[in-house]
């Protein structure tokens, strides 16, 4: 497995306040990394640093494409949190998906026939046929999420980052979302931020638990006894009743 994102000794924060302290993390080619942790622990801050939206206070983040042809810069797709979407913005499903290709064309030129064909393939893959002309404000939560996921993957990125996909509140679509992610994961790494620990632990290959510092678990296998006693993350992370699940090894924050 080749490392594609390497974070070393990262410190990050806002207005002089440190939110992430000495974070080290490696994301591998075709990884499926789950990021969990309590509210305010710094998950979104970490994502912002990876996406280049927030400049770290110190430390470094390096990106290495594992592709041998075409664009050798690491490309990333991003599905933002639901509450960051302005649903009143007058844009259709087709336009949202095509906008994921904006960086592939000069600013003022139009999308090409190939771009539009690609958008059509993505619309079919996301199960959004017939909704191309619909404004995003008139979609269900699950449909909006699929449109934005389509936007995130249309450029065939090497990494897709999803910030709290469960906030789109469409339980009917949840199983399909995870199926889609498993498919996408065949040729793309996935970073999934989620509170939905039960589902996350069934899907991911590795886990990062973020609570100011970061603890990394390269696999999510059960280490034996329940580790609640030693597990310093909030109980919500473990409170999923009788669902089949895996337990994280002991870790320290
Ligand atoms: N733009 C900002 N300016 C100042 N402080 C911020 C900003 N964004 C986040 N914070 C603070 O940084 C801390 C970490 O926030 P962050 O959103 O990274 O946590 P999180 O783990 O993603 O939380 P949640 O699970 O609630 O989404 C919080 O205390 C938050 O209030």
UniProtKB/TrEMBL annotation:
Signal peptide: none annotated. One of its GO terms (molecular function) is ATP binding. InterPro entries: AAA+_ATPase (IPR003593), ABC_transporter-like_ATP-bd (IPR003439), ABC_transporter-like_CS (IPR017871), Metal_Ion_Import_ABC (IPR050153), P-loop_NTPase (IPR027417). Residues 5-237 form the ABC transporter domain. Its EC number is 3.6.3.-. SMART domains: AAA. It holds the Pfam family ABC_tran. Keywords: ATP-binding, Hydrolase, Nucleotide-binding, Transport. Belongs to the ABC transporter superfamily. This is Metal ABC transporter ATP-binding protein. The gene is znuC.
């Amino acid at each position: 497995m080749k490392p594609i994102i390497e974070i070393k000794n990262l410190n990050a924060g806002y207005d002089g306040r440190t939110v992430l302290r000495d974070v080290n993390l490696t994301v591998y080619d075709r990884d499926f990394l789950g990021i969990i942790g309590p509210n305010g622990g710094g998950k979104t801050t970490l994502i912002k640093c990876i996406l280049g939206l927030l400049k770290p206070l110190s430390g470094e983040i390096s990106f290495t494409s594992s592709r041998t042809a075409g664009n050798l810069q690491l490309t990333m797709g991003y599905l933002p949190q639901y509450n960051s979407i302005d649903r009143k913005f007058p844009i259709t499903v087709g336009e949202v998906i095509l906008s994921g290709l904006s960086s592939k064309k000069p600013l003022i030129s139009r999308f090409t026939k190939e771009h539009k064909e690609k958008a059509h393939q993505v619309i079919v893959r996301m199960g959004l046929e017939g909704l191309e002309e619909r404004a995003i404000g008139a979609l269900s939560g699950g449909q909006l999420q699929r449109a934005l996921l389509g936007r995130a993957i249309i450029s065939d990125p090497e990494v897709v980052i999803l910030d709290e996909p469960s906030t789109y509140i469409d339980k009917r679509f949840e199983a399909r979302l995870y199926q889609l992610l498993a498919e996408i994961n065949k040729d793309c790494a996935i970073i999934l931020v989620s509170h939905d620990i039960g589902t996350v632990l069934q899907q991911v290959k590795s886990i990062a638990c973020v609570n100011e510092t970061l603890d990394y678990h390269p696999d999510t296998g059960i280490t034996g006894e329940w580790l609640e006693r030693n597990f310093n993350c909030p109980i919500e992370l473990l409170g999923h009743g009788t669902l089949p699940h895996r337990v994280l090894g002991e870790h320290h924050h």
